[in-house]
């Protein structure tokens, strides 16, 4: 199984940024013509919008499929939260840019599986029956379900943001590829100790239902054991359980908390960050979306860039086929994000992070 850094593979990919995210744009030879068609929620889950983007060369069959350069794509989020929303918006943005550059039509719909496997299965069954040209699932469970749904048709499945594709059993499938936001667990824990060398006990907060969390939690335990630092684990599968788990870690007087790129915990970050900060417990996490929702700090990938690169892969799969694509592509990380408001509440100095990587300072938002 081979891996390539996306920056090398995508050298020929479109890099122009189209403003508007998933805002619908429709043109027919005139750049002024635009509009969006809203869709009602279906029984298959939350269908946000139907988007169309038409260049001026619908007759060009060399670059397109049998329909003359017209493609349909289903973008399927595992659930609604900041990271997955950011990726979906970037995917749509890049699909618009690709359509404009290549003079083709790319129609796409964005769905949310609401964190429910049965809802994701309904969505997957529907979009495969509609004979879409590619499915772009976002997050591990969504990718696993879409790959199963596409098993008979071999519809290209190009996922975004699986932290451990091998552990998720998403490698070695000839119609599946995607982008990995694999976490550098050791580096984040190094950040924790650089900021507070006196850490004695760490809370590990994650969900047992998230494949993304298995490897980094195992790595965190090994790292902490090597350093002679104690740890305690709390798991949760719903927002209420996350709140209860966070409260339990506060009661156990942990010095810091680590959470990997766990979608369940991310969905509840806004409900726990204030109590953690007020208790003086910095929350180190696997993605900047946690930090924008109140967690203290992370080091990870840029999810807008990851979404763009995933869309580029999907376009390659639709226009050139899957043979030229690797099992998956590892996104580049190295961006340290700190929530300055949370740092102020904690009363901590994070200046040490400036010597460890590119530092981005953010405040708390509910996006």
From TrEMBL:
What residue spans carry the region label Disordered?
25-67
Domain of life, per UniProt, equals: Bacteria
Q: Where is the signal peptide?
A: 1-19
Which terms are listed as keywords in the entry? Signal
Please name the PANTHER family in this protein's record.
ABC TRANSPORTER, SUBSTRATE-BINDING LIPOPROTEIN (PTHR35271:SF1), ABC TRANSPORTER, SUBSTRATE-BINDING LIPOPROTEIN-RELATED (PTHR35271)
Name used for this protein in its record: ABC transporter substrate-binding protein
Organism name:
Enterocloster hominis
